[in-house]
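Side project, low priority. Logging it here so it doesn't get lost.
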Amino acid sequence: MEVGSIITYMLSRILGTRIIYSLKHSPAVVLLGPRQVGKTTLALEIGDQQPSIYLDLENDEDRAKLANPARYLEGHEDKLVILDEVQRVPELFQPLRGIIDKGRRHGKANGRFLLLGSAAMDLLQQSGESLAGRISYLELGPFDALEIDPLSIETLWIRGGFPRSFLAETDDLSMDWRRNFIRTYLERDVPQFGSRIPAETLRRFWTMLAHNQSQMFNAAILARSLGVDGKTIASYLDLLVDLLLVRRLPAWHRNVGKRLVKSPKVYVRDSGLTHALLGIRDMEALFGHPIVGQTWESFVMETLITAAPDGTEANYYRTSNGTEVDLVLTLPGGQLWAIEVKRSSAPKTERGFHSACADLRPEKRFVVYPGTERFPLDDLAEAIGVVELAKSLRALR
């Protein structure tokens, strides 16, 4: 696939319209996402629709332009200023506040800055402290099931959604890209975020998480395997979560009169990276691997969480006796959806799912399976494909 084809594909990202809307109603918008996910391509496409200027803050020349940010940026008050890898210059957020407030007095209230960042936690804290009430946040992930041809869903599952991996001409080229991505992240990008974790240690930890997709996080076992303590393991997990590469799915914690498991579940957010970490090159290898059910579950859950309306809370539910629901979505209005994920082409509801739903009393119950037909499993639960359920969630936005 040529670069031009990749760029054309990027123009159809669903988030593009939301970024434009947010810019119309906020002085600054932060677009978060891991490296190589397409933030820059999408931002430049938006910038092409209006007067704009782009600065890459990993570039020494561009950073030098901001030695006096107030003077430089006030000279571009009539443009959308796109600042890429903004977490590299955290001291910039404080002067941005004064520039935004001054622009408001001049009648330039919104659409001033589009800030792109590859790490969530520190960036949210830095920007939130300095730009409270002046900024909105959006997250761009890899391609999801609603941005591709539905016939390519298995390709998305095996290769993941990073554009150059998903759009590669062959599975081998896709795997090569993902392996290079992982190595570059560990050896170059992670140290730029101030981490002193040895690259090989973090790779081993990341690979352990891939082996334990959608399993409850057990810091003690991982700590023993790596020869470190539990606090160190927690810091490793925090880093990968902060880099938007791993999702920590919290356990349902509300009182339902049962003893509930409290440990989070953890999984690598992009299924293609999971498969690269585990050396799974193609669909044939995946179907013969014991991780196949867990990686399918993680893929489905990440797809649905991405599609859900803003403000949706995602949890899993598990009691001390093993009664469990894979995913519980609490929608903004308080409605609960209970979702079980099955790899079987002939799905059915289990006793544990019914028992958990009796505790939770969800408004809707679904079993997601690899097929496309939607049909009832009993009086309350439906079997449904991942694309169809993602569309239903997206329609609630």
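Brief comment: The longest helix spans residues 171-192.
Revisit when time allows.
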